[in-house]
Amino acid sequence: MPERKKMEESFTPEQDLPPVLTSQEESSEEGVLAAVFHEAKRPLEFCLLPRPELQPGETLVRVVCCTLCGSDLHTIAGRRNESSPSILGHEILGVVEEVSNEPAVDVHGDPLKPGDRITWSICVSCGRCDRCLGGLPQKCRHLHKYGHGRAEGRFALSGGLAEAILLRPDSTIIKVPDELPDHVACPANCATATVMAAFNAVGSVEGKRVLLLGAGLLGLTAAAVATYRGADATAMSDPAPERLSLAQQFGADGQIDPSGFDVVMDFSGSVDAIEAAIESANIGAKIVLVGSVMKCDDMKLNPEQVIRKCWQIHGIHNYAPADLVDAVQFLTEQHQSFPFAELVSAEFSLEQIDHAIRYAEKHRPIRVAVRPGVSDEDH
Ligand SMILES: [Zn+2]
Ligand SMILES: [Zn+2]
């Protein structure tokens, strides 16, 4: 396919090139199967993408397993906008398939080699712009996010709903210990790392009273982190009783005095829940907003109260590389203390992706997993 070759050779990231996607009929042996998102409420399209020739610092990774994040489901259902065509899925556990002649290194500076079991930051940042240098690499002026944005040019393999993904140079890559189960490791680079960013923003929670809003994967993870880090009390607020009892398995306390919280973290995105929770914040409380990642109403907040109570309010969006390091370390040390492995309630092959999406929308489990390397017959 000479035309495609030419497109790849002339690619620079600044150019807005048409996507390199072929329909499954034009299959070639070297193709990589991907489920491509075109528009909301339309089934993903199976395409074979060319296997890229690696440039220095790039890594071709086989997708072992990818859990569907809430944001993926919001995009597919049309509750959230995403440019397309794109390959969704960012909560990925992978195994290095091929490295370039100048292999990328992991966060410890060790070169990657085929067979390494890895996770990586969703965000690839330049490391040189004012935002990167100012401590917010996740807001880099040249940011790329895996599982987001258009799948195009030679970086078309950019998401987890495919057999393989191409990691760009300067990706933050961490080797995942063998003892960490696939299903537990997948969300490390999304939910777990974001929760770590929230805790790193508030500092120590030892002896503190912590209120968490929203018992999804982030809230449950936060309950486990608060418990592990010695919070005096960890309260969970969620309208679903079954989620509340699940939260107790992650360390949340059952009956608790609903006032005087030193730390309030919202993962629900519910403005009503946040307003109610703020009423129960203690003097000097740290209030962390994480969940409102879609268009939402304004929130009522009285400035005099913020001042007189000396509150600190933090907004957390995505995370920095150090938070991902903390996430992998936390899961490695604590995944057996809390039932993280039970949070993925079903697994599907890549060919079954539409079933996976329907299952997730209908049953609203904490997570479902997609395992591209597995054929339909194995399921
Ligand atoms: Zn996510
Ligand atoms: Zn930057």
CATH level 1 class label of the largest domain: Alpha Beta
CATH superfamily of the largest domain: Medium-chain alcohol dehydrogenases, catalytic domain
CATH topology of the largest domain: Quinone Oxidoreductase, Chain A, domain 1
Q: Radius of gyration, Cα only, in angstroms?
A: 21 Å
Can you put this structure into words, describing what you see?
- The two termini are 34 Å apart.
- The protein contains eleven helices and 17 strands.
- The strands form four sheets. Strands 4, 5, 6, 9, 10, 16 and 17 form a seven-stranded mixed beta sheet that branches.
- By secondary structure, it is an alpha/beta fold.
- The chain has helices at 2-9, 70-77, 130-133, 182-185, 191-202, 217-228, 241-249, 271-278, 303-308, 321-334, 353-363, and strands spanning 22-23, 32-36, 45-49, 59-67, 91-99, 117-120, 123-124, 144-145, 164-167, 173-175, 209-213, 233-237, 261-266, 281-289, 312-315, 344-349, 367-371.
- The structure holds zinc ion (2 copies).
- One zinc ion is lined by residues 69, 71, 90-91, 190.
